[in-house]
Amino acid sequence: MKLYSNNDRFMVWQVKQLLDEHNIPCFIKNEFASGAMGELSPLDCQPEVWINDASWQPRAEKLIAQMNTATTAEWTCPNCAESNGGNFEVCWQCGQEGQVDDR
Ligand SMILES: [Zn+2]
Question: Is residue 53 domain-shared with residue 102, that is, in the same domain?
Fold first, then answer.
């Protein structure tokens, strides 16, 4: 069944990689679709991530949701109170490791 699709092939690969890391059986469809669309609408040709077994879906969707928040959520440095983007693991201001404070 289809789990995820995105016009951005990079995002699709990220999802595929994420599922691989968690040993969820999956594969990509329409990987090379753009540029060879023929009569199909662009929507039909988006790269897609498919899972072999629908019972993986809840777990896979949770992982994808986590991936999305992990890259966008900001955090505040516990040392200097600077706010950092979610893609930084250490504070860009003072070098303090972030996201350790879960009070
Ligand atoms: Zn800091």
Answer: no
> The dihedral of CA 93, 94, 97, 99: what is its sign?
negative
Same domain? 41 vs 91: no
Cα(73) to centroid(ligand 1), Å: 16
Q: Are 46 and 5 in contact (CB under 8 A)?
A: yes
CA dihedral (20, 99, 69, 29) in degrees, to 10, reads -20
Cα torsion at 95, 97, 99, 103 (round to 10°)? Answer: -110
Q: How far is the CA of 27 from the centre of ligand 1 (A)?
A: 40
For 75-101, what is each residue's pLDDT tens digit? 889 999 998 887 788 898 999 987 544
What is the Å distance from ligand 1's center to 92 Cα? 7
* Domain shared by 53 and 68, yes or no: yes
The answer on pLDDT for 16 being more than 60 is: yes
